[in-house]
Amino acid sequence: MAPTLLDLTRKKYADQAKWFLNGFWKEGAKEEAETIWATWQKFVELDSKKKEGNELDEFWSHKFLETQGETLSVVDLRKKMTTIDQDFNKKMALLEYLLFKYSKGVKECCESPQDDNQKEIEEAQRKLQAVTDALAEVTAALERQTAALEEQKKAENSAREALQASTRAAIKAKGDATAAQKAESEAKLQLMNQKKAEEVVRAAEAELKAAVDALHSEEETYRKQIVDLETKSNDPSASTVQKSKASNELAQLKAKDSLPLQKAKITQTAALKKVEKERKASEAVTASAKASHDAAEAAARTAEASQHQAEEAAAAAERTAKAAAAERVKAEEETKKVEAAAKETEERMAEALAYLEAQKSKSGVAHGSIWWMERELKEAQKYLPKKKQTLL
Fold it and tell me: Does residue 41 sit in the same domain as residue 176?
């Protein structure tokens, strides 16, 4: 029993279009297939239900007719809708519009041949839809995984470069620390030698000072003896013998040559001043050597700390590089899995296409439905990578 127009307009837009194409394929629908496809797209675009819709209300029907270059008043629209709206529900189905546009009758539409391999067509549609969806999904997954792998490779390269830079920095820091330690050792040795030299000067100074002190003591003793003898020789209470003895001793003491003592005093005093000057200069050199040593010691500690930090950074960079390499290996393995899934899906696509070709070669084929499937595949391939589009 043939379906009624109401039965047909309750179908989704795509099924209405396919019914029209099947029924009037040989009566001109074949040549209008692309136009009918574009009309279906416009209905879907305007309907809030999109592909699940089946008819437009009066407002959206008016909008649709405007897109077709028919700007109508409300009165004109309702007159035209009276002609288009075959079931008089004030709504316009896609099939109703096609019947109006191509001047086809309701009865001939409802009774139009849909051919006898509808089950096979539906099976082909199911297979192709499933495999198209799967191919789109696995292709998107492959693109994401490929991009992820590239990012992982970049991360690994960056980690490797960071490791190389950190290793170079650690080697340099170690060299700097070695040089600083050597400089510290040299400064320490120089300070030790300078302290020894200073000790020698100090010892010489002490020795000269003792000699000068001895000369001063000898001179003081000489003066004291003279004073004592002069006092005794002039003492009114002393006897003549005592005074005479004191006078003789005084004369003998004064007769002694004091020039060597004075000369020795002058010489030793001059030598002491010289060595004191040398000692002060030596102390200044020692202070400078100590400052150099302290600076070298501080530099060595800083260099050691820098070396430690650089080695820690290099170790961390090495761990990061190893982790990045491991992640890259995992990404490669995952990419291989997705590639295998994509290849399997492509094989399923080839099988589905072969099945469709087999149905096309049979008699009683629903040409409109097959054309519609092929057109959907053509539309779907826009969203696949170029190398995958040849499959459809």
Answer: no
Identify whether 42 is part of a domain: yes
Query: Does 328 map to a domain?
Result: yes
Helix or strand or coil: residue 55? strand
For the question of whether the overall pTM of this predicted structure is more than 0.70, the answer is no
What domain range includes position 59? 1-114
Q: How far apart are CA 40 and CA 86, in angstroms?
A: 18
Final residue of a structural domain among 296, 317, 335? 335
C-alpha 230: how far from chain center: 105
Tokens of 305: 């700390």
Helix residue ranges, H only, the chain: 5-9, 13-24, 33-46, 58-67, 74-84, 94-101, 106-110, 118-233, 240-255, 259-360, 367-380, 386-389
**3-state SS class at 381:** helix
Instruction: Judge if 180 and 34 occupy the same domain.
Output: no
Same-domain status, 191 and 101: no
Domain co-membership, 100 together with 168: no
Residue type, 115: D
User: Which CATH number do you get for residue 81?
Assistant: 1.10.238.10
Q: Are residues 109 and 176 in the same domain?
A: no
20, 37 contact by CB (below 8 A): no
Write the DSSP assignment of 29-43 as a string of letters: TTTTHHHHHHHHHHH
pLDDT by residue, tens only, the chain of 392 residues: 789 999 999 999 999 999 999 999 999 999 999 999 999 999 999 999 999 999 999 899 989 988 888 776 666 666 777 777 677 788 899 999 999 899 999 999 999 988 766 777 778 878 888 888 888 888 889 889 999 999 999 999 999 999 999 999 999 999 999 999 999 899 999 888 888 888 888 888 888 888 888 888 888 888 898 888 889 888 888 888 888 888 888 888 877 766 787 788 788 888 888 888 888 898 899 899 889 999 999 998 999 999 899 999 999 999 999 999 999 999 999 999 988 988 888 888 788 778 777 777 665 668 899 999 889 888 877 766 666 555 55
